Amino acid sequence: MNSAQLFDQIRKKKSFLCVGLDTDPAKIPPHLHDEADPVFSFNKAIIEATAAYAVAYKPNIAFYEAMGSKGWTALEKTIHFLKSKYPEVFTIADAKRGDIGNTSAAYARAFLQQLDFDAITVAPYMGEDSVKPFLGFADKWVILLALTSNSGSKDFQYLDAGSSGKKLYESVILTSSKWASHDQLMYVVGATHPDELAGIRRMIPDHFLLIPGIGAQGGDLARVAAAGMSAQCGILVNSSRGILYASSGTDFALRAAEEALELQSQMAQLLRAAKL
Amino acid sequence: MNSAQLFDQIRKKKSFLCVGLDTDPAKIPPHLHDEADPVFSFNKAIIEATAAYAVAYKPNIAFYEAMGSKGWTALEKTIHFLKSKYPEVFTIADAKRGDIGNTSAAYARAFLQQLDFDAITVAPYMGEDSVKPFLGFADKWVILLALTSNSGSKDFQYLDAGSSGKKLYESVILTSSKWASHDQLMYVVGATHPDELAGIRRMIPDHFLLIPGIGAQGGDLARVAAAGMSAQCGILVNSSRGILYASSGTDFALRAAEEALELQSQMAQLLRAAKL
User: What is the pTM of this model?
Assistant: First the structure.
């Protein structure tokens, strides 16, 4: 998927919502534990309930790996279900990988080829040759960590880096934005840093940003949109726990739909206000 | 396993060799493709052939994920085989994970609990709360990326960081070494940076270092030992491709054993010279 197709979907659905599939077997409704594959059954119900309101889905790979090979199978079924039933949605493997070249190439095969995700989140610490292998696939994306939503973002990402007066996260963006066009590269910027988000948008007016951290982590949607929107929307705002675990009863999918609709309604207003 | 037990094993085997299990189905000997699980059969033969010469094994998780759920099953069988037949060896999940707290906690469960590895490699970019969840397990280790062996290490790791005159990789070591003792925390330092390795050893005299990059990547064992050894050895030197793919014939395990023995012999000399 390219950025024009993504923007097109945003306009059609009047939404820039990404639903994070951080599916934790300990948190899914008890009645699902009778199913053959409770995690896949949960994901399928969540996707069906929210697909009208979301433009992207982002399985958080950690939660599947914590279940071993059964988890990997649930992940395979989830991405297959997404690709076959909702081919228009943008799919993100939230994996935060990054290693020496031949190893990154293996991760790229795993997520962009074998599982056929549209995008993968990548950590920048190991530099260009750790990121480049993920960029070798047509219409597939790297979403590079820039300024993350967590408190630990203060440990290294805000350090003055080099002699340019830039912070490390700014240096990561400036350097990496030369590695690929804004049709293959997005950045992760946490909703918990709205002021820095505005500065990042000035640095890179055309790149899409994947923005986690609203809801459980405390970020605010209207502030994020004001600071981060580009001329082509340019933001995907993620919500995970607020949607997935809105109810632990048999009404979980209905309640997830209501939460997603609430976010989509706010997003429709923000898009309208921005004349998009 | 604690550092005293690891050092004890190093003295017994007169080796500080870590065998990297970067098992690529496209590179294993053709005759193994008739086996039910060629990757596990390959790993088992490599481990049996080299266990006398190695103190640690390090499956590179990317190569297993590139095979999907079958790969994850091969990984489970490999770690189970290691733990049951060679309980004295140190096992490292080369995973380079790191995410917000609840996600890192899921990765920690996956690798340190479910798969029961002794250690996992972790990327530092997201800071303290992304690393801490991996530190909550007795006698289990975090091996944090400091200065990696690849060319991309120059992109960010060498940037002047903060106002202290330190490089980013030095800042990562200084900051993170306050998060845990040297009985729970090691660092990855590439063999391709022997001068910096000596500086790192002065900064942290007691921490173990995991050192990739000899062989295919060009690092030199004697230089690494001269620069990196501590009073309790303090280094694990990894070799992957040089051992695994020494032969693509039916003699692959024998040739792997010869390569591992050659490295172990050099290591025995280096340990003797250091009176360890």
Answer: 0.97
